[in-house]
Amino acid sequence: MKRILLPLLSLALLAGCGEETRDTAKASATSPAAAPETTPKIERPDAPSLTAKYAALRKQQIANVDYGISVKLDSESKSFSGRVIAETEIARPLQRPLTVDFSGGEVQSVSVGGREIPFEYNGYFISIAPEQLQQGQNSIAIEYTHPYSTDGSGLHRFEDPEDGSVYLYTHFEPYKANRFFPHFDQPDLKARYTLDVEAPGDWTLVSATRENKVQQLENGHKHWRFPTTSKFSSYIFPLHAGPYVIWEDDADGIPLRLMARKTLAENVNPQDWFTFTKQSFAFFQDYFGIDYPFVKYDQVIVPDFTIGAMENVAAVTFNEAYVSRGEKTQAERLRLANVIAHEMSHMWFGDLVTMQWWNGLWLKESFATYMASLALAENSEFDDVWENFYLGTKQWAYGADQLVTTHPIEVSVPDTDQAFSNFDGITYGKGGSALKQLPYYLGKDTFREGVHNYLKKYGYRNAELRDFMGHLGKAANKDLHQWTQDWLYQAGVNTISSSYQCTDDKITQLTIAQTAPDLITKQRPVLREQKIQLGIYRLQDDIMTRVAAVPVTYSGATTEVKAAQGLPCPQILNLNDEDWAYVKTSLDDKSVAQVSRHINAIESSFTRLMLWQSLFDSVTDARMPLTEWIDFALNNASAESNINVIRLISNHLEKATAYLYRIDMPQELRTEQLQSIENFTWTQLNTSPAGSDAQKTWFATFTEIAHTDEVLDNATQLLTGELEIDGLPIDQDKRWQLIVLLNRHLQGDYEKLVAEELKKDNTDRAQNYAISARAIRPSIQIKNEWLDNILNKRDQYKLSQIKAAAGALFPAEQLNLYRDTSIRLLGAVPQVSGTADTLYNKAYAMLFPVACSQSGIDQYSQILEQNPELMPALGRVLKNRKQQSEWCMAMAGQPGEAKAD
Fold first, then answer.
1. Which of 74, 298, 460, 511 is a good FRET partner for 621, with 20 to 30 A between their CA atoms?
2. Bridge pairing between strands 120-121 and 204-206
């Protein structure tokens, strides 16, 4: 660790900065300019969301706010009680009510300055009349109760089915903190928080600061008190509670704790968690040039979590999926290290400096996406970080950016519902990819300098995109206005291709051509500027070797690459070698021919990875027949030894299998191709090195594509132990994967397998596996039963259980069952959207498959036309499925809309 915890002097200085901000706000509130509101009248709708316009108005009303929060928790009841005192400084005389966000609870009383006042409460927010408040300081106290959540947001309650222990945790982004306590729930009203909690005596309480007093109460509970925090937004305020198992460590002066529930603890590998945490701290404190801004760092692994992780201040929460009940692959360890680094980077970019409103969500997430990979590439054991970035983040971005629902990276967010819908491949993947290419474009040291200056200036404050780009431009002495417009305010991914001429085996002319997609938005096609590296490959001693690398900044429709003149004539020209840029590439015919013959001779595994991806893109772009790609893959994949390439190929074989079921083709050909993939996968599973990650990868693919009685019988024997594969222990999670597979094809005594396994493994994870196994059975009765559960009995299920069922209900080979239930499924769309529950809408959207038929496309079109105002989390998915169904038909050579380059 190159930097240590903030020394006392720095803490004092930073605290002083916070006070200066507060004093400035006070001065503005009492200055002659502090006149009554003059903005146009903005009425707040009775709705469970917050609009950007109203948030801007409230920001004018409130100069400063700090909160004192008192909460009573217990392990038996379904709700909790609390009292909040909001020390609120009103900036100017109010002409309209001040609203306090509080969704889904009950309000017992509201008082101002100790005087109880009348109020209105509509279930979404509390309204306080202007005459009840004065310009300047107001102490607003609210007593309330609220039910615990079961959907992973607000204050979530989980009861462990194994031992009955109860665990609580908070998850607030983007607009759920008001399910925990009444307050002004918007990111630009940062506050300090002073917390005290009464809770059961055997619980540990975790918040943004470490407790400074714990008092034993007569009722067996304890009263925990926490010192006042620094200033930050309420969506990252944490409170986690329960009988957690705790591991402790230290990151060169920063106290570290890792926590997990008791029944999961034996599967946690604290050494990996602490190693990755300390490595990330060492990198970020040095890179940002700013010491860690908070006083400790806790990481809490929590159940029923709906996302991967969340950057709560000094108390990060993680999904339990990051804990394996068997040996992790190196890729899984890398994913863990990546998410740890991602959330830690938010402590500076997101928590210390926070976006003004949710249109800036992308910047903090994109920045963390890029910085996590940079941290691992620079300071970890992993030497294939950027290959994994390409394999995961980039492909996610490219996929999202070619859909009808793509959007600019920077986009208007009218309300908090829309903010949630932008948690997608553009927000994370494309934004992270755009930032990744900026250091190549500006220079690595210049980019770093700009980031440091930005964080230093806006610490404990809010900032906007122009602030960030302004600091990068100033550091580079470069006007980034056009770059910002082209990359951040325009949607779509460009494609580049090349043409070249050679004489005497030397390049005499090479040109890069750039095209833009014809987006359905009909916006102006954008030709962008960025820096790439051309990789020139030639066969030498039977090895396809890179003989030259040519950095080039291209722009416009064509760019002549003069630096390539005189270099060896390429046999393969890789246009985006080492993945510097965010762009699709189209290989020239000569390169395609060489790749087809020599894919395994290419020396660089990263280049092989990119070229395998390029070939599969040709399939989904309807430029290469699916069956031709399958034949190529099965003839070449067995010679591949790099695990990342193997992971890519196995993933593409799974996708190819799904397309074979969807696409209209002769049944004999379909059967032959499916059988070939199954045989190949089973062979790879049995011939991969014992205990290798390749073996584990092929096992996962096997559980997705196995379908014939003979191979399913092998699955049964693996489950019973009659058949063993050397080096592959069938751990508990693998057992459930096999059970889901056997239920998917009604193989053997599939119902009994579920019941018997639940007797051995009754964890919540096992219960979700069991739901998936039951929902995936190919029976119309089963499908209708689970649709009824999802639609009419959802209050009997946790959100995680609804997702387990929805994600399993219609696999590709069961499209006929989807068609049989589609009228009911689509008919319920208005009902689901009408719940205004974003998380539920998102879960329901998982039911809809790529239909790959004109009738399916027409159904999607009709429901969208009839319901133009659907919740974004559902409406966007329906639009995507319609488009993906059109692409699927184009792949089969049927009428349909192919992807446009």
1. 511
2. unpaired
CB burial of residue 710 (10 Å; 0-12, 13-18, 19+): exposed
Q: 410 and 473, same structural domain? A: yes
Q: Last residue of some domain: 600, 619, 638?
A: 619
DSSP letter, residue 6: P
* 234 and 208 Cβ atoms separated by less than 8 Å: no
Q: Are 497 and 586 in contact (CB under 8 A)?
A: yes
Classify residue 295 by its DSSP letter.
S
Q: Residue 677: name the closest of 630, 729, 610, 736 by CA.
A: 630
- Mean pLDDT to the nearest integer, 276-282: 98
CA 668 to chain centroid, in Å, comes to 40
347, part of any domain: yes
Tokens 């006929």 belong to residue: 816
Residues 206 and 82 in one domain: yes
Q: What angle do CA 838, 844, 845 make, to 5 degrees?
A: 90
How far is 688 from 693, CA to CA, in rounded Å? 9
Q: Give yes or no: residues 564 and 596 share one domain.
A: yes
Count of CB atoms situated within 10 Å of the CB of 805: 23
- 108 in any annotated domain: yes
Let me know if residue 647 belongs to a domain. Answer: no
State the DSSP string of 676-737: HHHHHHHHHHHHSPTT-HHHHHHHHHHHHH--SHHHHHHHHHHHHTSS--TT----HHHHHH
Last residue of a domain, one of 489, 514, 548: 489
| Terminal alpha carbon distance of the chain | 47
In three-state secondary structure terms, 158 is strand
The mean pLDDT of 557-570, rounded to a whole number, is 97
Structurally, how many domains does the chain consist of?
Answer: 3
For residues 73 and 215, membership in a common domain is answered with yes
Tokens standing for residue 471: 């600091």
In this prediction, residue 576 carries a pLDDT of 96
Contacts of 510 (CB under 8 A, 6+ apart): 498, 499, 500, 501, 534, 560, 561, 564, 565
Mean pLDDT for 94-100 is 95
Closest CA relative to residue 630, chosen from 678, 589, 592, 588? 678
Using the predicted structure, report yes or no on whether residue 833 has a pLDDT greater than 80. Answer: yes
Q: Which of 582, 641, 637 is nearest to 615 (CA)?
A: 637
CATH number (domain holding residue 236): 2.60.40.1730
**pLDDT at residue 11 above 70?**
no
Q: Annotated catalytic sites, by residue? A: 343
Mean pLDDT of all residues in the chain? 92
Q: Are the C-beta atoms of 49 and 415 separated by less than 8 Å?
A: yes
Residue 472 shares a structural domain with residue 544? no
- Give phi and psi for 135, each to the nearest 5: -65, 140
Per-residue model confidence as pLDDT tens digits over 520-538:
445 567 899 999 999 999 9
SS3 content of the chain, % helix, strand, coil (to 5): 45, 20, 35
pTM of the predicted model, to two decimals? Answer: 0.90
Please give the structure tokens belonging to residue 61.
Answer: 């009303």
Same domain membership, residue 473 and residue 442: yes
Q: Which pLDDT value is given to residue 534?
A: 98
- One DSSP character per residue, 538-583 reads EEETTEEEEEEEEEEEE-SSEEE-GGGTTSBPPSEEETTGGG-SS-
| One domain for residues 442 and 551 | no
* In a domain? residue 601: yes
Which DSSP category does 844 fall into?
H
Q: What is the pLDDT of residue 519?
A: 56
Positive/negative CA dihedral, 568, 569, 575, 577: negative
Both 476 and 512 in a single domain? no
SS3 sequence of 105-145: CEEEEEEECCEECCCEECCCEEEECHHHCCCEEEEEEEEEE
Residue 161 burial (CB < 10 Å; 0-12/13-18/19+)? Answer: middle
DSSP 8-state symbol, 35: P
Q: Report pLDDT for 472.
A: 97
